[in-house]
Automatic annotation (TrEMBL):
InterPro entries: Adaptor_Complx_Large_Subunit (IPR050840), AP1_complex_gsu (IPR017107), ARM-like (IPR011989), ARM-type_fold (IPR016024), Clathrin/coatomer_adapt-like_N (IPR002553), Clathrin_a/b/g-adaptin_app_Ig (IPR008152), Clathrin_app_Ig-like_sf (IPR013041), GAE_dom (IPR008153). SUPFAM superfamilies: ARM repeat, Clathrin adaptor appendage domain. This is AP-1 complex subunit gamma. Coiled coil: none annotated. It is found in: Cytoplasmic vesicle membrane; Endomembrane system; Golgi apparatus. Its main location: membrane. It comes from Astyanax mexicanus.
Length: 745
C-alpha cells in the first residue's frame, strides 16, 4: 500500500486483511508513513494524515504520536484543518496529558472567532476534554457566550458550562444568572441546555434550590406548551413533542419539588395533565410517563395523583416490551412500602409476571450460582455497556458465596483467556484470580470440568491484561494487584512477580506507578508483613457504604436529607475487624465510644493513648521513594560537569537524561547539547530545561533523549557541547560507549 493513499483506500485495505497479523502489518506500515510525513515542515496533507490516524485509533491501535499534530492543526487558519485538529484533540487528548494545555490559548482565540462554526468547534472540545485548569481559565469566555444572540452558540455554551460546573463546582455562581435567563428562549436546543445546567447547579450546590424554585412556574409553562402544542416536524418523535426536553424538565421539577410544599403544589396540575394526555403506545411516550411517575412519587404530591402514578405502572406491566415491564416492577417495589393499597390492586398482574420467560422480569434467583452465572453471561456478552457499580456488586456477591469460590474463579479464568475486550469482565476476573488463585491452581472443582492450570499460565494471563492496549488504567490496576496477591498464594514464581512489580514502578501512569512502588516496598522493607497485608478480603457488608447491590427493596438515601441526631453508641465491627487490622501492626485499642457531641473516648483507658499503632500504620507505606537511577559523569572540564542516567530501559528502547551543572563563579550561557548515534539507532531529543547554568552549583540544566534500536549491542552516542563561559565560546565533544542500568533493573 502506497504511503499516500487516501483514507477510503486505507480502510478498504484494512478491511480486506484476512488475518489479524496482516491487519497489524498494514497499520504499522501506514503509521510509519504518517510519522515520516508529520516530520516534514511543509506538509499539505496534515489533515489527511491525521484523519487516517484517527481511524487507526478507533481500531484500538496506538496513535499517541499524533497529539502534537492535533495542536498544530488547531492553530491553523483553515477551517478544514482546524476541524480535524479539534476532532483529533477530543479523541487523542485528555485532561491528564500536558499536550492538552497547549491548546488552551487556541480555544480562547477561537471562542472569539467571527465564524459560529469555529466557535462551535472550540466549545465542543472544551466540553469534551477540558481540564480543571482550562475550565478555570476559559469560564469567563463561556459566560460571555451564554449571552450571545446566536442560539446555535448559546446551546453549546450551556452544555460547556455544565462541564465546567462538574469540574469546578464553585464556579457555578458565575453561570446562575445566565442559566435563569436562558429559560425565556424559544429555541428547544437552548432550553434543553439551560435545563441541564440548572439541574447540575442544583445537584452540586443545594443552596441554589431556593433561587431556582422561583422558576417553577416558568418551567411548568414550558412543559404545558410542549404537551398541548400541535404537530411540529422539527421536534416530533413518535407523536410526542420533544420527549427529550420533557424528560429533562420533569427531572428538574423532581429536584425542585422534593421536600417543598409550595413548589410541589405549583406542579401538581401539570403532572396530572401529562399523566392523562400522554400516549404510552410508543417508547417516547412511555419514557415521559415514567419520568412523570418518578416525579409524582418523589415530591409532596396529592394522594389522588399518587394513585394515578401507580395505575400507570400497572399499565406498564401489561406492555409487550419487557424493558418497560422491568422498570415498572422495579418502581412498584419501591412504592409498595408507602402506597401499599394502590399497589395491591395490581396484585394479579404482578403474580402473572412470575411466569414471564425473561428472568430479569421475575426478579427471582433460584440460587447464588444462578445469580452469578447470569451476571457473568451479561458481562461476557456486553461488559462494555454495563454500569460502573456492576463490578463491585458482583465482587460482593462472589465473596458472600464462599462455597462457589472455586467454581467462580475457574469460570472467570476461562473467560479471561478467551477474551479481554470486555473491561468489566476483565476487572472481576483479575480480582477473583488474585483472591482465589490458590483454588484455581489446585485444579479440583466439582461444579465445573477441572482444568489444569500452572502458575506460569495464570501470570501470563494477568500480564496480558497489563500489556494489552485495550486495557483501561482501571483494569491494569486490578491486574497488578492480582499479581501481587498471588505472591502469597504461589511458591515457584515469586521472583517473576517481584520483577513485574519493579518494572511498573516507572510506569507513565501515575496510579499504576504508585501501586507498583508500594508493592515493591512490601517486598523489601515490609516483607515480613506481606502475607498479612495481602490475605483474602473479608465478606463485604452490602449496606456498609450505602450500596444496595441493585436490590430495590433497600431504599437508597434521599438527597439533601438532614442527618438524624447521633446517639451514644458503641461501635462494634463484625468480629472486631478494626482492632484486628490495627493488631497486624501492634497492640490494638478497644472500640471507641461515640457520643452526642461527636467526641470519642475509649473505655477503661486514659486520654493519652499510645501512638505506636498509629505511627506504624501511617508508616506502612513510608519510605516508598523509588531508588534514584544511577548516574555517571561523562564530561567534566573547567567547572562544567555533565552526568548521564538511564531512567527507563527495555529490549528496544532507552530513555536517557543528561544533567549539566556549573561549579564556576560565573553563569554559563548559551548551553546547547547535540547528539549523534549509529544509523541502526533512532534518536529523539526532548526540549532542554533551559540554556543557562547558574554558577556555584545553584541549578542545573536537564535534557531527555529517547533512543530506539533493534540491537542493543550497537548502542553508542557522540555528544557535542556548545556554551559560553566568562565571555568565551567553547565547544567540546564526548564519546559514550556504555550506558548505566536503570534503577529497577
Amino acid at each position: 500500500m502506497s504511503p499516500s493513499v487516501c483514507l477510503q483506500e486505507m480502510i478498504r485495505v484494512i478491511r480486506g486483511a484476512r488475518t489479524q497479523g496482516e491487519e497489524r502489518g498494514v497499520i504499522q506500515r501506514e503509521c510509519a508513513a504518517i510519522r515520516a510525513q508529520f516530520r516534514q515542515a511543509d506538509n499539505g496533507g496534515r489533515s489527511h494524515n491525521l484523519a487516517k490516524l484517527l481511524y487507526v485509533h478507533m481500531l484500538g491501535y496506538p496513535a499517541h504520536f499524533g497529539q502534537m499534530e492535533c495542536v498544530r492543526l488547531i492553530a491553523s487558519s483553515k477551517y478544514s484543518e482546524k476541524r480535524i485538529g479539534y476532532l483529533g484533540a477530543m479523541m487523542l487528548l485528555d485532561e491528564k496529558q500536558d499536550a492538552s494545555l497547549l491548546i488552551t490559548n487556541s480555544i480562547k482565540n477561537d471562542l472569539s472567532h467571527s465564524s459560529q462554526h469555529v466557535q462551535s468547534l472550540a466549545l465542543c472540545t472544551l466540553a469534551c476534554m477540558g481540564s480543571a485548569e482550562m475550565c478555570r481559565d476559559l469560564a469567563p469566555e463561556i459566560e460571555r457566550l451564554l449571552k450571545a444572540s446566536n442560539s446555535y452558540i448559546k446551546k453549546k455554551a450551556a452544555l460547556c458550562a455544565v462541564h465546567i460546573v462538574r469540574k469546578i463546582p464553585e464556579l457555578g455562581e458565575m453561570f446562575t444568572p445566565s442559566a435563569h435567563s436562558l429559560l425565556s428562549e424559544k429555541n428547544h436546543g437552548v432550553l434543553h441546555g439551560a435545563v441541564i445546567l440548572i439541574t447540575e447547579l442544583c445537584e452540586r450546590n443545594p443552596d441554589n434550590l431556593k433561587q431556582f424554585r422561583k422558576s417553577v412556574p416558568e418551567l411548568v409553562q414550558i412543559m404545558k406548551n410542549l404537551v398541548t402544542s400541535g404537530y411540529s416536524p422539527e421536534h416530533n418523535v413518535a407523536g410526542i413533542s420533544d420527549p427529550f426536553l420533557q424528560v429533562r424538565i420533569l427531572r428538574l421539577l423532581r429536584i425542585l419539588g422534593r421536600n417543598n410544599d409550595a413548589a410541589s403544589d405549583a406542579m401538581n396540575d401539570l403532572l396530572a395533565q401529562v399523566a392523562t394526555n400522554t400516549d404510552s403506545s410508543k417508547t417516547a411516550g412511555s419514557a415521559v410517563l415514567y419520568e412523570t411517575v418518578l416525579t409524582i412519587m418523589d415530591i409532596r404530591s396529592e394522594s389522588g395523583l399518587r394513585v394515578l402514578a401507580v395505575n400507570i405502572l400497572g399499565r406498564f406491566l401489561l406492555n409487550n416490551d419487557r424493558n418497560i415491564r422491568y422498570i415498572s416492577m422495579t418502581s412498584l417495589q419501591k412504592i409498595v412500602q408507602t402506597d401499599h393499597t394502590a399497589v395491591q390492586r395490581h396484585r394479579g398482574t404482578i403474580v402473572d409476571c412470575l411466569k414471564d420467560q425473561d428472568a430479569s422480569v421475575k426478579r427471582y434467583a433460584p440460587s447464588q450460582r444462578w445469580h452469578i452465572d447470569t451476571i457473568l453471561h451479561v458481562l461476557v456478552t456486553a461488559g462494555g455497556d454495563v454500569r460502573d457499580e456492576t463490578v463491585p456488586n458482583l465482587i460482593q456477591l462472589i465473596t458472600a458465596a464462599s462455597e462457589l469460590h472455586c467454581y467462580t474463579v475457574h469460570k472467570l479464568y476461562r473467560a479471561l483467556i478467551s477474551d479481554i475486550v470486555q473491561q468489566s469482565l476483565v476487572q472481576v476476573a483479575c480480582w477473583c484470580i488474585g483472591e482465589y488463585g490458590d483454588l484455581l491452581l489446585k485444579g479440583e472443582c466439582e461444579e465445573i470440568t477441572p482444568m489444569q492450570v500452572t502458575e506460569d499460565d495464570v501470570l501470563d494471563a494477568l500480564e496480558t491484561v497489563l500489556q494489552s492496549h485495550m486495557s483501561t488504567p482501571t483494569s491494569r490496576g486490578f491486574a497488578l494487584t492480582a499479581i501481587m496477591k498471588l505472591s502469597t498464594r504461589i511458591t515457584n514464581n515469586v521472583d517473576r512477580i517481584r520483577s513485574v512489580v519493579s518494572i511498573y514502578g516507572s510506569c507513565i501512569d501515575v496510579e499504576l506507578q504508585q501501586r507498583a512502588v508500594e508493592y515493591n516496598a512490601l517486598f523489601k522493607k515490609y516483607d515480613h508483613m506481606r502475607a498479612a497485608v495481602l490475605e483474602r478480603m473479608p465478606v463485604i457488608d452490602r449496606n456498609s457504604s450505602g450500596q444496595t447491590n441493585g436490590d430495590p427493596s433497600v431504599e437508597p438515601m434521599k438527597e439533601f436529607n438532614q442527618p438524624k441526631p447521633v446517639q451514644g453508641v458503641l461501635i462494634q465491627e463484625p468480629a472486631n475487624q478494626v482492632c484486628d487490622l490495627l493488631d497486624l501492626l501492634g497492640d490494638s485499642n478497644p472500640p471507641l465510644l461515640v457520643t452526642n457531641d461527636h467526641t470519642s473516648t475509649a473505655p477503661n483507658s486514659t486520654n493519652s493513648t499510645s501512638s505506636n499503632v498509629q505511627d506504624n500504620l501511617l508508616d506502612l507505606l513510608g519510605g516508598l521513594e523509588p531508588t534514584p537511577a544511577p548516574s555517571v559523569t561523562v564530561f567534566e572540564k573547567g567547572g562544567l560537569s555533565l552526568k548521564l542516567q538511564c531512567d527507563q530501559q527495555t529490549e528496544t528502547s532507552t530513555t536517557v537524561t543528561f544533567t549539566a551543572s556549573n561549579s564556576t563563579q560565573s553563569d554559563i550561557t548559551g548551553f546547547n547539547l547535540q547528539a549523534a548515534v549509529p544509523k541502526s539507532v533512532q534518536l529523539q531529543m526532548k526540549a532542554p530545561s533551559g540554556d543557562l547554568i547558574p554558577a556555584q552549583g545553584c541549578g542545573t540544566v536537564t535534557q531527555t533523549v529517547l533512543l530506539s534500536y533493534t540491537n542493543k549491542a550497537n548502542l553508542k552516542m557522540r555528544v557535542r557541547l556548545s556554551y559560553s563561559s566568562q565571555g568565551t565560546a567553547c565547544q567540546d565533544m564526548v564519546q559514550i560507549d556504555s550506558f548505566p542500568s536503570p534503577a529497577w533493573s
